[in-house]
Amino acid sequence: MLEVHELTVRFGGITALDGVGFTVARCAMVGLIGPNGAGKTTLFNCLTRRHRADGGEVRYEGRGLLAEPPHAIAGLGIGRTFQNLGLFPRMSVRENVMVGAHHHGRAGFLTAALRLPRVRREEARLREEADAVLARLDLAAVADHPAAGLPFGTLKRVELARALAGRPRLLLLDEPVNGLSHGEVDAFADTLRALREELSLTVVVVEHHMGFVMGTCDRVVCLDFGRKIAEGPPEEVQRDPAVIEAYLGTAA
Ligand SMILES: Nc1ncnc2c1ncn2[C@@H]1O[C@H](COP(=O)(O)OP(=O)(O)OP(=O)(O)O)[C@@H](O)[C@H]1O
């Protein structure tokens, strides 16, 4: 479903990604690990066209992704969550999730500005879709609550709900369990495993929490200083001396 070839990104003198390549099969869940500054978020930003690549190629469902404009990404079925939450604090949980479904809307600028009946019908539909996702993630009780002031664990689930509202086929999760308690991490992992099945999702997840990665991912790719240093089944990568030195060594 996703093929990354020789992807290179430079920021001035820093090479954030240096010829990185890997593939993700449909319905697989791949963990992207590596120490701070390894290039994981930069990779996500390339896939969602927030960063320009200096070299290499990305093919998604057979199409060259790097030629697509950033606003086309959600419409192609790629959803993402952000490390530091991409939510609007003053908007309600439901409104935040509706923003995630917005690209399904078909009303043009003028129709929307004049609030013609079609726009109202469309809003009602987006609201229904958002409510279905909120119910699925046990968030119905906070649907009308502003995002600001909710517990961090709840906000992480709202962030997931917002990404799912876009009906993605490929879901990119950036540190989804960072900052969660043990119990919350386990619950998040259970939810994600179930959603993968229900929605036939393909998932790439950046995460430092090794227990979560080992328990949810089929394969793991490890980056260090912008280079891929290991790839394989989670147990194998965890035992890889290069990974232990680069990542687990520094984390211990
Ligand atoms: N917009 C930017 N401008 C300049 N340098 C950047 C930019 N974004 C990232 N970098 C640099 O690129 C390298 C890779 O950063 P990136 O955020 O992708 O790492 P990461 O693996 O996601 O780290 P973390 O685990 O801390 O989130 C780092 O050296 C970082 O300082």
Automatic annotation (TrEMBL):
<dbReference type="GO" id="GO:0005524">
    <property type="term" value="F:ATP binding"/>
</dbReference>
<dbReference type="InterPro" id="IPR003439">
    <property type="entry name" value="ABC_transporter-like_ATP-bd"/>
</dbReference>
<protein>
    <submittedName>
        <fullName>Branched-chain amino acid transport system ATP-binding protein</fullName>
    </submittedName>
</protein>
<dbReference type="InterPro" id="IPR027417">
    <property type="entry name" value="P-loop_NTPase"/>
</dbReference>
<keyword id="KW-0067">ATP-binding</keyword>
<keyword id="KW-0813">Transport</keyword>
<dbReference type="Pfam" id="PF00005">
    <property type="entry name" value="ABC_tran"/>
</dbReference>
<dbReference type="GO" id="GO:0005886">
    <property type="term" value="C:plasma membrane"/>
</dbReference>
<keyword id="KW-0547">Nucleotide-binding</keyword>
<dbReference type="GO" id="GO:0016887">
    <property type="term" value="F:ATP hydrolysis activity"/>
</dbReference>
<dbReference type="InterPro" id="IPR032823">
    <property type="entry name" value="BCA_ABC_TP_C"/>
</dbReference>
<feature type="domain" description="ABC transporter">
    <location>
        <begin position="2"/>
        <end position="250"/>
    </location>
</feature>
<dbReference type="InterPro" id="IPR051120">
    <property type="entry name" value="ABC_AA/LPS_Transport"/>
</dbReference>
<dbReference type="InterPro" id="IPR003593">
    <property type="entry name" value="AAA+_ATPase"/>
</dbReference>
<dbReference type="Pfam" id="PF12399">
    <property type="entry name" value="BCA_ABC_TP_C"/>
</dbReference>
